[in-house]
């Protein structure tokens, strides 16, 4: 009979069918989230929330001991180097397979440029505004690059959430851009926003390159390469472009350690998430970093948070909810169709 067919497992329509209940389905089919949902949750909890602390802590280290941005980048890269031990234990090449080594190094260079621009920006503009511009530019650029290069489109709800989050970022940073001071102060502020934008552009390019890498131990390899390339580029640049500073207070060392650890966690989670979900959606969910940075900016750094910042943060959170709910609802519809 059809109901006993070993390959198709078709129901036997000659017998009365039992009432359909959710208990007839295995638990792994009822509650199993999709890959996109996993990626977005990892990006939200492991990527955006820890990264929200990085900007304020970097600004605290600069205010306490005038720690240069390149020196902070060097300290962060040191946290990536122990990953070489994991690669050695697994018997994998430190620089990746020869056929993809160039792209892996390009990914590391783009990430180092992105982080360097971000650390430089938070020294001249508020941490929340710097994170806003960087995440906004990375989201828009990721959507355009994925659409043009990978021909990977988005659904209507995803576009709604993406545009909403971008609108929230514009609400946050728009009033500040309209009131730039004239003279040297205004020039440095404008330069900080430009660096934040370039950091977002480099981040979106890095995510696109990472999606093209497919080999075992890809994630630990690119994490190690980030630390290696960052050290090779930052150490000479620190002595040529900036003046090294040795912090002598516990606050600066605590901030440096927290930045290195949180940034490593965020790097790993974002790299994982972008292989599961659309890069533009991952960047949009990472806008939660802006909300965390604004909260720390107000409660820890005691810097002013305007009403437009609160309004924009609310729009960003609502857009993240739309994107997450859309992916969850799509998974439920797929389960219903399978039933």
TrEMBL record:
<keyword id="KW-0677">Repeat</keyword>
<feature type="domain" description="EamA">
    <location>
        <begin position="191"/>
        <end position="324"/>
    </location>
</feature>
<dbReference type="GO" id="GO:0016020">
    <property type="term" value="C:membrane"/>
</dbReference>
<feature type="transmembrane region" description="Helical">
    <location>
        <begin position="281"/>
        <end position="300"/>
    </location>
</feature>
<dbReference type="Pfam" id="PF00892">
    <property type="entry name" value="EamA"/>
</dbReference>
<feature type="transmembrane region" description="Helical">
    <location>
        <begin position="159"/>
        <end position="178"/>
    </location>
</feature>
<feature type="transmembrane region" description="Helical">
    <location>
        <begin position="39"/>
        <end position="57"/>
    </location>
</feature>
<feature type="transmembrane region" description="Helical">
    <location>
        <begin position="190"/>
        <end position="210"/>
    </location>
</feature>
<dbReference type="InterPro" id="IPR000620">
    <property type="entry name" value="EamA_dom"/>
</dbReference>
<comment type="similarity">
    <text>Belongs to the SLC35G solute transporter family.</text>
</comment>
<keyword id="KW-0812">Transmembrane</keyword>
<feature type="compositionally biased region" description="Polar residues">
    <location>
        <begin position="12"/>
        <end position="31"/>
    </location>
</feature>
<dbReference type="InterPro" id="IPR037185">
    <property type="entry name" value="EmrE-like"/>
</dbReference>
<keyword id="KW-0472">Membrane</keyword>
<protein>
    <submittedName>
        <fullName>Solute carrier family 35 member G6</fullName>
    </submittedName>
</protein>
<keyword id="KW-1133">Transmembrane helix</keyword>
<feature type="domain" description="EamA">
    <location>
        <begin position="40"/>
        <end position="173"/>
    </location>
</feature>
<feature type="transmembrane region" description="Helical">
    <location>
        <begin position="222"/>
        <end position="245"/>
    </location>
</feature>
<feature type="transmembrane region" description="Helical">
    <location>
        <begin position="251"/>
        <end position="274"/>
    </location>
</feature>
<feature type="region of interest" description="Disordered">
    <location>
        <begin position="11"/>
        <end position="32"/>
    </location>
</feature>
